[in-house]
Amino acid sequence: MSPEPLAHISQDGRTHTLREHLYRTAERAADFAAVFGFRQWGYLNGLWHDVGKYALAFQKKLKAAASEDGHLEGKARVDHSTAGAIFAVEHFKMAGRLFAYISAGHHAGLPDWTADRTGQAALSHRLLNKDLLNAALEGGIPDEILEQSFPEEKPTGFDPAFWIRILFSCVVDADFLDTEEFFEPEKTSLRSGYPALSQLMDSFGRYMIHKQATAPDTPVNRIRAQVFARCIEKAKDSPGIFSLTVPTGGGKTLSSMAFALNHAAMHGQRRIIYVIPYTSIIEQTANQFREIFGEAVVEHHSNIDVSDAEGQTSKARLACENWDAPLIVTTNVQFFESLFASRTSRCRKLHNIAGSVVVLDEAQLFPPEFLRPILKALDELRKHYGVTVLICTATQPALGPHKSSSFTFEGLENIREIMEDPTALYDHLRRVEVQLPENIYEAGTWEGLAEELAKLPSVLCIVNRRDDCRLLWSLMPEGTFHLSALMCGAHRSDTIARIKMRLYSGLPTCVISTQLVEAGVDLDFPAVYRAIAGLDSIAQAAGRCNREGLLEKGKLTVFIPPTRPPAGILRQAAEIGARLLGEKVPDHLAPTRLTAFFRELYWLQGEERLDAKNILRDLKPDGKLRFSFRSAAANFKLINDAASSPVLVSYGEAGVKLLELLKYMGPERWLLRKLQRYVVNLPKPLHQRLLAEGAIREIHPGIYVQGHGTLYNGDLGFCPEKSIIYDPDELIG
Question: Which pLDDT score is estimated for 309?
Answer without folding.
Answer: 37
